[in-house]
Amino acid sequence: MDENxxxxxxxxxxxxxxxxxxxxxxxxINMSIKKGEIFGLLGPNGAGKTTLVSILSTLLxxxxxxxxxxxxxxxxxxxxxxxxxxxxxxxxxxxxRMTGLDNLKFFARIYRIKDYKEKINxxxxxxxxxxxxxxxxxxxxxGQKLRIAISRVLLIEPExxxxxxxxxxxxxxTTREIIKILFDLKKTILLTSHQMSIVEQLCHRIAFLxxxxxxxxxxxxxxxxxxxxxxxxxxxIDDKEQKKELRNELKNLNYITNLKSTKTGFIxxxxxxxxxxxxxxxxGKYPVQKVQEIDPTLDDVFIELSK
Amino acid sequence: MFKKExxxxxxxxxxxxxxxxxxxxxxxxxxxxxxxxxxFLSLFFPFIIFNTLFSLESQFFEGYYSIDNYILFLLLGYCxxxxxxxxxxxxxxxxxxxxxxxxxxxxIAPIKKVNVLFGFLISGLITRSFSIIxxxxxxYFLYPIPFYTLIIVIVILLAIAITFASMGFxxxxxxxxxxxxxxxxxxxxxxIAIVSCLFYPIxxxxxxxxxxxxxxxxxYYFDLLRLSWWAGIEFREAxxxxxxxxxxxxxxxxxxxxxxxxxxxxxxxxxxxxxxx
Lengths: 307, 277
Hints:
The complex is a heterodimer of chains A (307) and B (277).
Chain A: E1 4-16, E2 22-34, E3 38-42, H1 49-56, E4 64-69, E5 72-73, H2 78-82, E6 85-89, H3 100-110, H4 116-126, H5 142-155, E7 160-164, H6 172-184, E8 188-193, H7 196-202, E9 205-210, E10 213-219, H8 220-229, E11 231-236, H9 240-251, E12 256-261, E13 265-270, H10 276-283, E14 290-294, H11 298-306
Parallel strand pairs in A: 3-8, 3-9, 6-7, 7-8
Antiparallel strand pairs in A: 1-2, 1-4, 4-5, 9-10, 11-13, 11-14, 12-13
Helix pairs in contact in A: 3-5, 4-5
Chain B: H1 4-25, H2 30-37, H3 44-56, H4 70-84, H5 86-100, H6 103-108, H7 113-127, H8 129-142, H9 147-177, H10 179-194, H11 210-213, H12 217-231, H13 235-239, H14 244-272
């Protein structure tokens, strides 16, 4: 897993605005992905994830900087790159007005895949979608559509897969099944998501992207370590006067990184679990109904990582 | 340059695009009736107008339009009308693909843009094939011509379809990139198509306008189409109207338009990508 399959050097993409300004969708991105690696690109909506995938898959051209896939410049050799990559944009790129089988046949013919009927049968059987192939895709559930979208990508046997939000809106059971399928592929994968839990389960390395900037790139294990220390807590308190007082006291605690008022109380973030006892002793002085740990949001993690 | 493998690959890609497009288009079969019979209505008014004019005087216009051939020319105009929709066809297709979010599947595939152009062109012609074939049969029955002349006419009809498709491909490109430009182009090209003497002779316009009409390449296509069929009946008369400019314009534009459209598509699409959904 030493050879770099994907590399970017100061990759920048800007969009001009009608008002005369510009939006920097990607700002001097430098990253590399090794052969066989599953690389997660994590970020909120509008972070630049899809723009990055679009450039790497030759759909868009960068404003400046370079990107290489298999050592080939995406600007100069788009056709050579296209032959070796598979792109999945959620359940997009699947025609609802055609059957699943017709969808797969269409792409198999476009890519000139030999013995495609046998391959379609093999792949769809392994993905558990074979029984739906003769039905119109418009009748599929989202999970089934995603399976057809994955079948399409696998059919062309790409060396690298670009998967943009591949598991968005799926139920936990289907999510687990598809994560297993992707993991078992043993391919180089660039996966984007704004769901931390998915990236955590699947990726070897993760990059946090926000407003076109990479905030941090690290191994999955290191990110999990950071998140383990990071705690988000919901506090319920009814008494209005006491709530005000508690708010003032919490504001003065230097280990609280974020404090938000809610209808029922507060949501706070602390950067390390070692501060838990001190917090609990503070809360003990007030008529607090409930203290509950909440999964950190992307915003919380960004605030933490941006420090 | 033309390896057998490459040719087979390109044909296979065009074939798969045709099949895909037809399956999408005829998901509901009534579409076929709409595509093939509604355009017939466009013949109705020109027929009444010309019938009235030529009943007043058999040679109402100067030039080769007369009571002897105006029905043929209207029917040939209708054949062209059957492919004129190609000007807006790509706009509709790409708009649908944009909304369905399937466009990137085509763009990421290692497929030449010229194959996309021809794939959709052929599928478009197939959707109107019933009308086109029926009209040619009627023309052949009413105004019989030698077989080789019929082949020439069909080749010119294909040249017209290719040119329309190339223009339509550019409009379609802007439907993806910037719908404002697409709309403006659509209006502009519609104007060019209208001022091209498709159903009527150039003589219907004031003489002062003729030089402008003669700047329109489509005028030469339609004129050559009519004259080619007429040459199968009145060879000398027809040939006296055909000029080298007719032939050059048709040949050159038919060859360069698909190339320009494909290159333009590649350049603009990769630079600006999809916008507006």
